[in-house]
Amino acid sequence: MNSTRIIGSYLSPYVRKVLVCLELKGVPYQVDPIVPFFGNDEFSRISPVRRIPVLIDDHVTLADSTVICEYLEERYPSPSIYPQGAANRARARWLEEFADSRMGEVLIWGLYNQVAIRRAVWGEAADADLLKKVYEQDIPHLLDYLEQQVPAQGWLFDEFGIADIAIASFFRNAQFARFAIDAERWPLAAAFVTRALAHCSFAKLKAFEDLIQRVPPAGQREVLMAAGAPICPQTLGVAAPRRGILKI
Ligand SMILES: N[C@@H](CCC(=O)N[C@@H](CS)C(=O)NCC(=O)O)C(=O)O
Description:
Elements: E1 4-7, H1 13-25, E2 29-32, H2 41-46, E3 54-56, E4 61-62, H3 65-75, H4 86-122, H5 128-149, H6 162-176, H7 187-197, H8 200-212, H9 217-226
Parallel strand pairs: 1-2
Antiparallel strand pairs: 1-3, 3-4
Helix pairs in contact: 1-3, 1-6, 4-5, 4-6, 6-7
């Protein structure tokens, strides 16, 4: 029996990337929905930089969303989440990398962390100067780039895949921080993100995300279980948070 376990909160864009891939490939899984700062010593052992997601299955333990998605592609090749041909595959990986690195820096560390995590986990106020720069410079800059990349209809490559998933996943967290793309200034990017987040693989997860968005980390697991989410019986979560290891 397959026993794929994903460690990490439904609210993380990197976890969401992996869950969408599992949904697309029809791989059954269970989630230990911890916010990474609340991981125990076992979490430190399997994720040495204390980041989510972690995948644990009968073959391997992996602690990086890109590596996990590539593994899922190789172990469960159909349907494929990468396009055909060397150039398209490379471009898909580049867009995924752009999402994970620069969009993560701007939309997670710059925006979501300031607006949500700092208060919910650490009881700290947002950094107003950083937020101003994020809204006025960083987000427009990355949207200018995406506006040149995304198609007017459909997906980045022939089938819905890793590049679409990675980009859309970060904008879901921007939504949590009440940011909406200005559709007059970036019409293609706005429509693309709306289209991708409406895909059934994202929509299924959205129901669980909506339920826990305003629930403190300690209560999220129970809310998810009550709603029928595939929550695993054991958890690597503890009550007191620890500061992260990496800065970005
Ligand atoms: N390169 C990693 C990045 C994962 C990541 O940054 N996850 C965030 C959650 S959204 C995290 O665990 N942050 C905790 C920390 O940095 O201390 C991946 O793609 O999986």
